[in-house]
Write a structure and sequence with these properties.
By secondary structure, the protein is an alpha/beta fold. 45% of the residues lie in helices and 14% in strands. The two termini are 25 Å apart. Bound molecules: zinc ion (ZN). Residues 1-312 form the Hcy-binding domain.
Length: 314
């Protein structure tokens, strides 16, 4: 059966930047910026639960559904050592992340049975999203080995779609699509873009989408855009062929107009200007006939999400 956001007349919402909110607003240190460690303490779980519920309530008030993400970004085996876990511990955390999200979905649906929540199994990149590494450095096969265990765990525990977030390396993207195809689950591939609207390597979004589609017989359910202010990608989208543009089903914009380099060198969070964010996003959505999911990335919070749900999803 098709997932509800694939057949809905209006796009679904997804999260805001939960990890940047945890770090900047709640002052919780996140090793490797991964939200996975939040699941290891009662206070961390409580925060994630309350943010999940806030996001779901925003979707419900706008009469749409929501994709809620497992806290498993950067929780593939490649991150076990940097996160200080054994591979077994990290696998258990992936199980726990899905289990926890299912619990929250049940709690939300008990009080509000109408809100449709899709369990989004998030995976994402094997290295820093702001680090450029050529496809020569990682083969499709080695990327598959790095992701296989995590994706199998997420699928076994019941996520409804796999979303590869903030990816910049095409071999990684192809690997995740191939694994999803093997495990017969829908998959989204969302690229992290720079302030020129291109991937870190200088590759255009159009080219990236075409390359992944060609290598995988178009298995990807939809592609996505991450981690860039919507105003920065208007022009590249305007210049893109419609047949490629309509493959884009997801956008999670950054609040800030600053470059990743400027943001990396800053300790304060730039929440940007919400009316500018929303009006640029509105224009972007007019260019995306295949849009299915809209949310926020770094620097966005419930206020951004509320504004975009009210103004962009009706
Ligand atoms: Zn981001």
């Amino acid at each position: 059966m098709a997932l509800p956001h694939l057949t809905s007349a209006i796009p679904f919402l997804t999260e805001a930047g939960l990890e940047t909110t945890a770090y900047h607003t709640y002052k919780i240190d996140l090793p490797c910026s991964s939200g996975t460690t939040l699941l290891t303490s009662e206070s961390g779980r409580e925060l994630v639960r309350s943010l999940y519920k806030s996001y779901a309530n925003i979707a419900a008030s706008s009469g749409t559904g929501i994709l809620l993400a497992t806290r498993t970004w950067r929780a593939s085996s490649a991150w076990a050592k940097p996160l200080n876990y054994s591979e077994d511990e990290l696998r258990d955390l992936n199980y726990a992340a899905v289990h926890f999200l299912k619990q929250v979905r049940n709690e939300v649906n008990k009080t509000n049975p109408a809100v449709r929540i899709v369990l989004d199994g998030v995976v994402g990149p094997l290295r820093d999203a702001y680090e450029d590494y050529s496809s020569d450095e990682i083969s499709v096969d080695s990327a598959k080995e790095a992701y296989r265990g995590q994706i199998r765990t997420l699928v076994e525990e019941g996520v409804e779609i796999i979303s590869l977030m903030t990816v910049t390396n095409l071999h990684e993207a192809i690997a995740v699509v191939e694994l999803s195809k093997e495990m017969q689950i829908p998959v989204a591939v969302s690229f992290s873009l720079e302030s020129d609207g291109k991937l870190l390597s200088g590759l255009s979004l159009e080219n990236a989408i075409q390359t992944v589609d060609k290598a995988t017989d178009g298995y990807t359910t939809y592609f996505g855009i991450n981690c860039v202010h919507p105003a920065r990608i208007l022009q590249p989208l305007e210049n893109m062929d419609l047949d490629v543009r309509q493959r884009i089903g997801l956008i999670r914009g950054n609040a800030s107009l600053k470059s990743h380099e400027e943001l990396d060198n800053s300790d304060t969070l730039d929440r940007g200007h919400i009316p500018t964010f929303v009006s640029a996003l509105k224009q972007v959505l007019l260019l995306l006939p295949g849009i299915r999911v809209v949310g926020g990335c770094c620097g966005t919070d419930e206020e951004h999400l509320t504004a975009l749900a009210q103004q962009c999803l009706s």
